Amino acid sequence: MKNGHILKLTIIAILTLIIVPVSASAAVSDSCLDCHSSMNKFPAVIDDWENSKHAEAGITCESCHTAGADDPDAIAHMGLYMTPVVSAADCGNCHVAAFEENTRSLHSLGTLYYEVDFDGQKLPYLESEITLDGYTTASHNATVNGCQACHGTNMTGKSTDDPDVWPNNGIGRINPDGSSGSCASCHTRHVFSVEEARKPEACQQCHLGPDHPQTEIYFESKHGSIYSTEGDDWDWTEEDWKAGEDYRAPTCAVCHMSGTDELKATHDVSSRLSWELEPPVSKHTDNTANILGTPISDGTTWQEKRERMTSVCEQCHSETWVDNYYENADATVELYNKKYADSSSIVDGLREDGLLTEQDFDEPVEFKIYEFWHHEGRRARMGAFMMGPDYVQWHGFYELLKDKAEIVEMAEQIRLNADIEASLGIDVSSERSENDAKTTPGFEALVLVASTLTVVMIMSRKGK
């Protein structure tokens, strides 16, 4: 946390209790506001702040942006030291519980999840890394505005002058002060609205698209339908937000964060998740470590997390309704796991037999098995838990069935090609490379022979 912040914010808090602000500008004199107002610099930012809860409480620009001279993100500005990077820890000076809860959630691990794939060179198909003649000539030019826009960048040891890490408001951004998270991902600056963060549109910045279409699933669901038709009439600002009083159907925030008669509200969006639906094989969120070596949320068992979510559901639904829904959703996930095991074993067999190159994502079958779990599989699983029947069936299991047929056909073709190469005396080893075809003498002439033999072998196999 920034040096001197705790003392400063304590003084501000005391003054706020003593002085009842008549208006934002009358309550506090802020040198940033004075200067920027006179220069008409960032007028929209000033307007946003003046309409915020922060302004009402006397929290000014200096409260959040002031930095110590030795802070890693400090910038000399107008005789002061400030930072444009307001970290989660900065917000945590006042919002202690929210900061601690978010820090243990999967949201705060967004950047680390990205780096696991990047460091393992699993994302070349997204141009995370462009290598020519053995030299890396560009680094994640596509993903800095793609994956990392939501996952977050790692600002450790870097400054805001570096376009690879800034600007960025990814939910898992690793800040220069070492904290993880960007509260502005959901409570966009400089209003930092609770109402905004409670609406599903806040979540759709990241949770949408072919690989994690929670937003599309939500709006397809009965919950989303009710929100779309009635949401404008709900009370979005009530601090103790209650089902049936302030809203009629849940939003993303209701299910994953809001309080009930039995639960406290939380910023740990993982505390009610009983399944991990993102990886190739779904598993329960027990108090075992995930792929990053950290517990899911607070380390409680998946049954405890399920009970928390059940408490949310039972504000509107009977115990039998909820139990039956979960039983069907669980069965859907188990069915998906079996289908993935079946299809992935085909690709694994090709790799074990040395029929695929060592490079990831340079052959069509690798893209297909990836999309099997990362696209279609996620849609089927998420749809099952979020009342999205079209995503379970037509965007999910139908596509999985189609993927399986294509994987089988691709595998057969790869093995046929290997048989043909072997019959022509071409060395097929475990050290296959993506440049084999370009370096094989007389390859063009062999293509015609191989194609003819392939047709013959396919016809003979079908005739059996």
From TrEMBL:
Domain called Cytochrome c-552/4: residue spans: 28-66
Pfam families: Cytochrome_C554 (PF13435), Multi-haem_cyto (PF13447)
InterPro entries: Cyt_c-552/4, Multihaem_cyt_sf
The name this protein goes by in its record: Cytochrome c553
